[in-house]
């Protein structure tokens, strides 16, 4: 998928900032919602390149570093295994999925419903919920294109929860399906891609499941140096996780990159994306195609029309891999997220 970088800009007309428990501030414009806590800054786009947290808006106040990609928890199509080659002439062009190349790899896949939300939805209407010690944002979209023989109208819902006192946010993506599939999955970026020139923005990547990929590249302890991403390679060539090839799910499913300042080379924190139930991951890419592509697909199991499936995540900044493990282990095993003004909680 082609990623287009859209700068985070504030509209001239700004609503008055609101304070939640003296800790979290919210400023809303026609184009975006900006959230500031004592630990973080983040923006959620209403228009343009939407879903998740906007590119380069996620700031770690402890270190001053920000994300190095196109956004965090960015959402695409509903898909399933199989090829669309037999009916491509009847597909909306943006639903066509070409494989057998370095961009998508060799595995046949096809879109059930679209469009790719991040690039084609154009506009969302996020809802803000303010709690005593958190702020949450809900985003939704009803898919409006479909493959032949499929209906339109499945609903994607995303929650982004920013708790006071943390350097991370908690999120959930859920599909309420109007179609049936033997292996339906949702594609998203987790935590997000890495824009770089020969590793100038990051020094290494950590994949907690590296020993369960089809090719670990000879690296150990889950750690891959930036030099491994100086040349393009296909997603199924190296560092590719596929549930069907793993003997059992990993103990943890964490994807992280260690930031560094492209001007000075100064080391920064780790920016991690954690899928809290490893068993929901269908496939996860970590490959180079002009940038480091960190696509993740969750689901990949039978879904009947009227059913739903979801995954829950933690995305944020950490000083060490040990810190990531500690937070992961406190929250692991969840796939859902419930939010109201009274509070929020992860669910099974």
What does the model show?
The chain has a domain at 73-78 and 114-123 and 138-157 and 169-334. Helices cover 4% and strands 42% of the residues. It has helices at residues 117-120, 321-331; strands spanning 18-20, 24-28, 32-36, 40-45, 53-54, 59-60, 71-72, 74-81, 109-114, 127-130, 134-142, 145-146, 155-163, 168-176, 181-189, 202-207, 223-225, 241-242, 254-260, 267-275, 281-284, 287-288, 292-293, 295-303, 308-318, 336-340, 343-347. The two termini are 31 Å apart.
Essential attributes:
348 residues, mainly beta, seven-stranded antiparallel sheet, disordered N terminus
Structure at a glance:
The protein is mainly beta and 348 residues long. Helices cover 4% and strands 42% of the residues.
Which residues sit in consecutive blocks of at least 5 with pLDDT less than 50? 1-21
* Strand elements, count: 27
Report the structural category. mainly beta
Cα distance spanning the termini: 31 Å
Order of helices and strands: EEEEEEEEEHEEEEEEEEEEEEEEEEHEE
- Give average pLDDT, whole number: 94
Main beta-sheet annotation: 9 strands, antiparallel
Put simply, the count of helices is 2
Rg for CA atoms: 19 Å
Topology:
Layout: E1 18-20, E2 24-28, E3 32-36, E4 40-45, E5 53-54, E6 59-60, E7 71-72, E8 74-81, E9 109-114, H1 117-120, E10 127-130, E11 134-142, E12 145-146, E13 155-163, E14 168-176, E15 181-189, E16 202-207, E17 223-225, E18 241-242, E19 254-260, E20 267-275, E21 281-284, E22 287-288, E23 292-293, E24 295-303, E25 308-318, H2 321-331, E26 336-340, E27 343-347
Antiparallel strand pairs: 1-2, 2-3, 3-4, 4-6, 5-7, 8-9, 8-15, 9-12, 10-11, 11-13, 13-14, 14-25, 15-24, 16-17, 16-19, 18-21, 19-20, 20-25, 21-24, 22-23, 26-27
